Amino acid sequence: MQNGTAYTGGGSAQDDLDGRLTVELASVVSAARRRATRDGDRQVDTAHLLHGLLESDPAVRDTFDGAPQIARLLGYLVQRSIGYGLQWHGTVEDSGAVPLVTEGGVPGWSPAAAAALDGALDRAHARYATRAGCLDLLAALVDDPESRAVEVLRRASVDPAVLSARLDGKASGQE
């Protein structure tokens, strides 16, 4: 949550958020919401966001070590509802990076996912961009070592520290 603006729901709060995201990132957020609903998950979590980023943005895919690594990542994410990740089903992702939000939180988002989106907005602001992009969100996801997204990265043999360094090198190339 940034400046008290909730990330879900309708009306002006959603419009405000959409105005602070690139078209590509807004599409990723929508896809993550649909995936969470389709999978029967109570909340959008960081793994839903990572899945959307990998499927939607070539610049995100270019940050990884080629097609085999992307295939492993997508394999883990696809297996979420049929095996891997079943321990997450019906639970709230609380990585401990932020306090568990109980009142006035972001309805439909795990605390870690809300923190990642907030981090993406902060990253964009730090580079004087008007909108957060997909690489901003990926960097924010990687910044939380206890998130589900980072767990998926580690299981797919992606070193979050190496990925973070690559993203820091690409930060100036975004909108």
UniProtKB/TrEMBL annotation:
SUPFAM superfamilies: Double Clp-N motif. This is Peptidase. It comes from Streptomyces halobius.
